[in-house]
Design the sequence.
């Protein structure tokens, strides 16, 4: 067991030794950090980018992006070592998320009284003392919370939740808005506190080991604290410090953190912001603002950035891999037989386009798989298309998926639409002021069950024949 817990600086040192960190000096917080980050994730082999000597800020005050942008980085963050490929991660993660959730109780977070986070404690907030980027050209401000972990507490049970919600600097650095979608656990916590107390405690870690970003950004079961989930993931209980103003726990070695209170009437206009859908979103409705009581930070702090945008973006690879694994595990736990693979495509931000491959066992099996996948708790948010394919189709290959749809889907019979499902304010199709429902199509791209025996054969060479000719003419086929 690892008795040191997740630590950003130790992980960065390992990543540098592995050649997975690209240092950048002299970039401007105004757009340049965001643009360089975008160029990075669109490379065939993106790296973690560590920005230093940022315009208007002293050396040592840094911003990190791209921390989970390739399989080696993500594998190391998940405690799976540095030598992972996409295939390795999917094979390992087919069972890991379920194991982490099941074992989380054995890795309860431990409260400590001191840690690097307490190196500096400010009572008068000034969030712009940190090099907070304006990430996209159309953003309405500087966003300090993109790779953040926002901490809330269940009023009735005391359970702690971490969520990744966007946070815009407000009031010239004295405050920040926190934009939480209505169905998220954090929003549920705040509403209950408002009912009972008229205000709610809130905190946010703004720089930390990327494991917190992973846990905050995927759907961890509601009865599991993300802190305990991170402990199970990394093999050691997380150490936290109780905030001096609210008592909410923060990672003891976080780089930057804030805590304070939110009240229903204390709001600010927010956005627009370039979101994971690939479009700018920004509601005209005011967003909750945090009355910040304490700001904590280490010497030479590192702000963790994970800006979304048109895919691929900073965390779209992580979300795709993690959600694909979690949905696979959840489907199997329903008892659905024949699940051969799931892929939550990066083109849909890891949410909007889900492909499920099955081996058909009985009439209605394909539709059952589609309906279940489309409404699983950890798949339902902002899902727009769920496609079910036969097991001879690779769900990760969009070309194969579209080929299956073109030859095996009868639109009249095999496309159905679910209405008034779980949407989002960041959906570009949601009009201002509308309730954020969406609809989703389930597409049966499997061979008709009654024609499995006589459906036309696929016109391609067998694997044995391909292997044979490859061995005979290696110089031709590479």
Sequence:
């Amino acid at each position: 067991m690892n008795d040191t817990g997740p630590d950003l600086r130790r992980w960065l040192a390992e990543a540098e030794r592995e050649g997975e960190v690209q240092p950048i000096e002299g970039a401007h917080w105004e757009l340049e950090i965001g643009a360089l980050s975008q160029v990075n994730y669109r490379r065939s082999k993106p790296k973690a980018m560590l920005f230093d000597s940022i315009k208007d800020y002293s050396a040592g005050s840094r911003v990190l992006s791209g921390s989970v942008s390739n399989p080696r980085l993500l594998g190391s963050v998940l405690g799976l070592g540095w030598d992972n490929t996409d295939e390795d991660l999917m094979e390992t993660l087919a069972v890991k998320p379920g194991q982490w959730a099941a074992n989380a109780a054995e890795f309860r977070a431990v409260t400590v009284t001191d840690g690097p986070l307490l190196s500096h404690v400010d009572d008068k907030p000034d969030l712009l003392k940190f090099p907070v980027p304006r990430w996209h050209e159309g953003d309405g401000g500087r966003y300090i919370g993109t790779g953040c972990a926002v901490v809330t507490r269940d009023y009735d049970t005391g359970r702690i939740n971490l969520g990744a919600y966007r946070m815009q600097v407000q009031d010239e650095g004295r405050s920040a808005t926190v934009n939480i979608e209505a169905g998220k656990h954090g929003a549920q916590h705040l509403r209950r506190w408002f009912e009972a107390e008229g205000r709610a405690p809130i905190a946010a870690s703004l720089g930390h080991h990327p494991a917190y970003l992973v846990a905050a950004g995927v759907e961890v079961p509601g009865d599991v604290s993300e802190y305990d989930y991170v402990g199970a993931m990394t093999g050691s209980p997380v150490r936290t410090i109780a905030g001096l103003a609210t008592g909410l726990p923060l990672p003891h070695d976080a780089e930057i953190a804030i805590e304070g209170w939110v009240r229903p009437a204390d709001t600010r206009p927010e956005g627009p912001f370039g979101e994971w859908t690939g479009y700018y979103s920004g509601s005209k409705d005011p967003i909750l603002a945090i009355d910040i009581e304490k700001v904590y930070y280490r010497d030479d702090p590192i702000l963790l950035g994970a800006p979304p945008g048109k895919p691929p973006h900073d965390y779209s690879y992580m979300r795709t891999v993690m959600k694909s694994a979690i949905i696979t595990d959840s489907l199997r736990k329903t008892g659905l037989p024949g699940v051969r693979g799931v892929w939550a495509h990066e083109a849909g931000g890891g949410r909007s386009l889900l492909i499920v491959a099955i081996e058909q066992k009985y009439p209605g099996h394909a539709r059952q798989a589609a309906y279940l996948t489309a409404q699983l708790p950890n798949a339902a948010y902002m899902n727009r298309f769920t496609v079910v394919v036969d097991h001879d189709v690779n769900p990760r290959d969009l070309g194969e998926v579209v080929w299956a749809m073109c030859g095996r889907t009868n639109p009249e019979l095999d496309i159905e639409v679910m209405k008034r499902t779980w949407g989002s304010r960041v959906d570009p199709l949601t009009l201002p002021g509308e309730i954020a429902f969406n609809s989703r199509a389930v597409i049966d791209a499997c061979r008709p069950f009654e024609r499995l025996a006589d459906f036309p054969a696929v016109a391609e060479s067998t694997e044995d024949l391909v292997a044979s000719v490859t061995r005979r003419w290696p110089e031709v086929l590479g």
Observations:
- DSSP finds 14 helices and 24 strands in the chain.
- The chain has a mean pLDDT of 94.
- Residues 87-304 form a domain with the Pnp Oxidase; Chain A fold (CATH 2.30.110.10).
- Residues 415 and 443 are 5 Å apart (CA to CA).
